[in-house]
């Protein structure tokens, strides 16, 4: 993917890049979650402006602690595990660059495992973001992400953290495959077809395409995940949610919030992959500097 260059990608790098991107896109992310749990929401811009005017501009960053915690678990796992599996696959096959089928397999496996790892923080994120769409008396009113995790486990039981796990795993697999495979393929195509330099314009175009593909592919699972995780009733299963939503809203509910999802995921994908590429360059430069100091005898790493 991104880091098959001289220096392998550190396990933490993908999560750090995704956390940085989330700081910029959280208001859109929050609006998406609110629209997904509302039965008859207005359009994305009106929804965002309505809540901003009612609660203030700062309210658009409500739930940011849960977003950062989610990226620190989910995105760290999905990018880190992908690179681990891809490295193992290259060693097994003897290929320096994996085929598309191997990339998809590695991304799917990493995505599924990351969906399990990130599900508890996903529950907290959905609830904290959707709170503003409810009447004051119906809100969870968590103070921050850790307060949400503690109260959920205490008030509803640890089993609540598995709510929406199935659609979250499906969404995570689709997300990882559509983002990573699309980004890698688009980047290779741009570099080979147009003879471009491996720089910011290529990273931007490839990640924009990856974000659009991922948004469309993930929309149904994303809506189901949000509705199940936001439910409090014990019968808030996927089957019951689908049945009731189909009865009251029709099949179009599966694409509910696509516009804010794209407006969030497309720039989020662009920022994430751009940050990954830039952080990787810093890692490479740092490694080069350490090797140079060691080779010239200025500083021996063994003595540090």
TrEMBL record:
Q: Name one GO cellular component term.
A: mitochondrial inner membrane
Membrane topology of the entry: Multi-pass membrane protein
Compartment annotation: Mitochondrion inner membrane
Q: Which GO terms describe its biological process?
A: transmembrane transport
Highest taxon above the source species: Eukaryota
List residue spans for each Solcar repeat: 9-88, 102-189, 198-282
Q: What is this protein called?
A: Mitochondrial thiamine pyrophosphate carrier 1
Protein's organism: Exophiala mesophila
């Amino acid at each position: 993917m991104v880091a098959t260059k001289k220096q392998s990608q550190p396990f933490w790098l993908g999560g750090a890049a995704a956390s940085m991107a989330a700081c910029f896109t959280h208001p859109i992310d929050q609006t998406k979650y609110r629209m997904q749990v509302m039965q008859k929401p207005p359009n994305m811009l009106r929804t965002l402006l309505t809540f901003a005017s009612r609660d203030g501009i700062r309210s658009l960053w409500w739930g940011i602690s849960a977003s950062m915690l989610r990226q620190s678990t989910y995105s760290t796992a999905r990018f880190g595990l992908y690179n681990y599996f891809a490295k193992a696959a290259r060693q097994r096959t003897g290929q320096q660059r994996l085929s598309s089928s191997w990339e998809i397999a590695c991304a799917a496996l990493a995505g599924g495992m990351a969906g399990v790892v990130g599900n508890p923080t996903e529950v907290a994120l959905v609830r904290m973001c959707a709170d503003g769409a409810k009447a004051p008396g119906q809100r969870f009113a968590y103070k921050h992400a850790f307060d949400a995790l503690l109260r959920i486990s205490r008030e509803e039981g640890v089993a609540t953290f598995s709510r929406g796990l199935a659609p979250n795993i499906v969404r995570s697999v689709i997300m990882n495959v559509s983002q990573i495979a699309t980004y890698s393929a688009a980047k290779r195509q741009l570099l080979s077809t147009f003879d471009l330099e491996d720089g910011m314009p290529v990273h931007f175009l490839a990640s924009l395409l990856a974000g659009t593909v991922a948004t469309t592919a993930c929309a149904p699972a994303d809506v189901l995940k949000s509705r199940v995780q936001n439910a409090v009733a014990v019968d808030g299963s996927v089957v019951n949610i689908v049945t009731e939503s189909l009865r009251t809203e029709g099949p179009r509910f599966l694409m509910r919030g696509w516009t804010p999802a794209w407006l969030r995921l497309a720039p989020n994908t662009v920022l994430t992959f751009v940050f990954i590429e830039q952080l990787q360059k810093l890692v490479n430069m740092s490694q080069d500097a350490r090797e140079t100091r060691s080779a010239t005898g200025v500083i021996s790493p063994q003595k540090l």
